[in-house]
Design brief:
Blueprint lengths: L4 E5 L4 H13 L3 E6 L7 H8 L3 E4 L5 H8 L4 E4 L9 H11 L3 E3 L14 H16 L4 E4 L2 E2 L23 E3 L6 E4 L1 H11 L8 E4 L3 E3 L1 H12 L6 E3 L1 H15 L6 H19 L4 H6 L3 E2 H4 L8 H9 L16
Parallel strand pairs: 1-2, 1-4, 2-3, 4-5, 6-10, 7-9, 8-12, 10-13
Antiparallel strand pairs: 9-11
């Protein structure tokens, strides 16, 4: 029996990579990757080939090239970067023409409504609306905020090696407001189940590991490390003001990675810790299916388990070479 073909866009990235891992481990589909020409010789792409992933080199806006690549593909999963969200529109057009049975656009973020809360969520919404105008079968998957970017740093510096922010000791907005967080490595297994499940077609699905406040996360690191974190505080009004200033100077220049991360980071913080969007309850209100209810057999990693890895020096920095100063 022929296995379904799944094509991943962004397979060498953080989210795309864990999806590839899970699909290969499950062994139920043929896993393929669409690679941009500029990335075709990168070591990460060579590793995909070594693992048996069939790679196709093309720009995702090149309809003529995509026509041949997408012929016979059952599912397309897009995990593109923040600077390429709208590039998914011509990709969706090509998928529709090719008869793709399920298109998974690049969601993979916190639960948040469109309409000015986060600029990147509004770009994603343009893609979602276009998909629906096409009548292209879809599944939209959101995953909360990664454990890997949710932890504070410690006075000893022992977790600085894995932190995107150094130091990271600021409580943002409401420190007791709970938010859904997820181990990056669990996204892949969730997605592998979701994209082969008929119940999730033309649905939004929310995956998460735990629902914790910043104070609970800080307290867990203190408990496990035996260190005390000297907290700083950025109240809601100051956080919103800082976000507004960053937006005003951003100019939507998608060529500047540091500015993108700064604006996206502040947008995320305001959505999570001022508005309180990123919760299972709000996801249910917006109409999401809950992955924990769909797949009760899958037990995601706990934040405590991740924190122990972090303290043992076994965590991995998710954006190597990038350190930010946002707060």
């Amino acid at each position: 029996m022929t296995k379904p073909r799944i094509l991943i866009v962004g397979a060498a990235g953080r989210t795309g990579g864990v999806i590839v891992d899970a699909l290969l481990e499950a062994g139920e589909t043929e896993v393929e990757a669409l690679i941009r020409p500029a990335s075709s010789t990168k070591p990460s792409v060579m590793k995909l080939k070594d693992r048996g992933v069939k790679t196709h080199v093309a720009e995702i806006k090149d309809g003529a090239q995509l026509a041949g690549i997408l012929a016979g593909v059952d599912t397309v999963i897009s995990a593109v970067g923040p600077d390429a969200q709208l590039d998914q529109i011509p990709l969706a057009d090509a998928a529709k023409k090719a008869g793709v049975k399920r298109f998974v656009p690049c969601g993979f973020m916190i639960v948040c409504p469109p309409g000015g809360v986060m600029f990147i969520r509004d770009e994603k919404e343009q893609v979602y609306q276009h998909i629906r105008k096409l009548g292209l079968p879809y599944t939209i998957i959101d995953v909360g905020y990664w454990y890997q970017v949710s932890f504070p740093t410690l006075p000893s510096g022992r977790v600085d090696y894995a932190s995107l922010l150094v130091p990271n000791v600021t409580i943002l907005g409401d420190g007791n407001m709970k938010t859904a967080i997820t181990d990056l490595r669990d996204i892949g297994p969730y997605v592998a189940r979701i994209v082969t499940d008929a119940r999730t077609l033309n649905k939004y699905v929310f995956c998460h590991g735990e629902v914790l406040s910043q104070e609970e996360v800080f307290a867990k690191l203190e408990e496990l490390s035996g260190e005390q974190i000297q907290r700083r505080y950025l109240p809601p009004d100051q956080l919103l003001a800082r976000r507004d200033t960053a937006r005003a100077t951003f100019g939507y220049d998608l060529s500047n990675a540091e500015r993108i991360f700064t604006v996206v980071g502040l947008d995320y913080a305001c959505s999570k810790f001022v508005r309180g969007d990123n919760t299972p309850a709000y996801a249910a209100y917006l109409g999401y299916l809950d992955a924990s209810e769909l797949y009760p057999d899958f037990v995601p990693r706990s934040f405590e388990a991740y924190a122990k890895e972090l303290l043992d020096g076994k965590a991995v920095k998710v954006y190597e070479g990038l350190t930010l100063d946002i707060w």
